């Protein structure tokens, strides 16, 4: 399949027709903090002209109201799923930006895609160079809270349940731009 190039040599947004029928698609990013999920989610959202719904700001907002721990964490995922459902109902594709560390969180996206009658495309992002991954984690600016430490990231990695099922795996330690391959996966 040939995809027209955009003005900077990348894939232009008009070239993307997500899903097999050209209709909306639910794109769910997964992966540890610091691997490049958010950067890729924003780029995919721009290419699809789709809203990008990150879970982290919702978790932070719940935390400001004293809601912390596992239950509010899942509540943040549920809130984002509710917002995504509205957007899908409007006929828009949606990009979810979340760690998605456990099967119960990932199940939300499968259920939502089924209810909305849209394809689900899961993109698992990792950084195959551990030194680079650590550098990224430690260099991240705080977004309304103390930045995650490398030690916290290692704990999250130990708790991360393997992702099973169809997905595209992207290694952000590879020098090649992953966007064209991601967009091809979405069509």
Helix and strand arrangement:
Elements: E1 26-30, H1 37-48, E2 52-54, H2 56-64, H3 70-89, E3 94-97, H4 103-116, E4 120-126, H5 130-139, H6 150-159, E5 168-171, H7 179-186
Describe this structure in words.
The chain has 187 residues and is of the alpha/beta class. 44% of the residues lie in helices and 12% in strands. The protein has 7 helices and 5 strands, in the order βαβααβαβααβα. The protein has helices spanning 37-48, 56-64, 70-89, 103-116, 130-139, 150-159, 179-186; strands spanning 26-30, 52-54, 94-97, 120-126, 168-171. It has a 5-stranded parallel beta sheet, with helices on both faces. Helix 2 (56-64) packs across helix 3 (70-89) and helix 3 (70-89) runs parallel beside helix 4 (103-116). The chain is globular. The relative contact order is 0.22. Mean pLDDT is 85; it is low at 1-20.
* Oligomeric form: single chain
What is the N-to-C order of secondary-structure elements (H for helix, E for strand)? EHEHHEHEHHEH
Termini distance?
10 Å
Q: Structural class, judged by helices and strands?
A: alpha/beta
Tell me the fraction of residues in β-strands, as a range: 5-15%
The number of distinct helices, counting runs of at least 4 residues, comes to: 7
Please state the overall shape, judged from the principal axes of the Cα atoms: globular
Mean pLDDT: 85
Low-pLDDT runs of 5+ residues are 1-20
- Helical fraction: 40-55%
> C-alpha Rg, in Å?
16 Å
Strand arrangement within the widest β-sheet reads: 2-3-1-4-5
Number of strands: 5
Largest sheet: 5 strands, parallel
Question: Which characteristics define this entry?
Answer:
alpha/beta; five-stranded parallel sheet; 7 helices; disordered N terminus
């Amino acid at each position: 399949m040939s995809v027209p190039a955009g003005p900077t040599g990348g894939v232009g947004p008009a070239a993307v027709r997500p899903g097999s029928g050209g209709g909306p698609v639910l794109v769910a990013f997964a992966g540890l903090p610091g691997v490049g999920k958010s950067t890729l989610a924003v780029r995919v959202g721009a290419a699809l002209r789709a809203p990008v719904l990150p879970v982290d700001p919702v978790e932070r907002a719940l935390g400001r109201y004293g809601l912390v721990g596992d239950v509010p964490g899942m509540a943040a995922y549920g809130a984002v799923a509710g917002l995504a459902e509205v957007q899908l109902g409007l006929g828009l594709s949606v990009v979810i930006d979340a760690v998605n560390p456990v099967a119960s969180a990932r199940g939300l996206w499968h259920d939502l895609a089924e209810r909305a009658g849209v394809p689900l495309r899961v993109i698992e992002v990792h950084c195959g160079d551990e030194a680079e991954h650590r550098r990224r984690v430690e260099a991240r600016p705080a977004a309304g809270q103390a930045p995650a430490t490398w030690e916290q990231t290692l704990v999250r990695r130990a708790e991360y349940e393997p992702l099973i099922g169809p997905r595209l795996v992207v290694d952000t330690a590879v020098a090649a731009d992953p966007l064209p391959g991601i967009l091809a996966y979405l069509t």
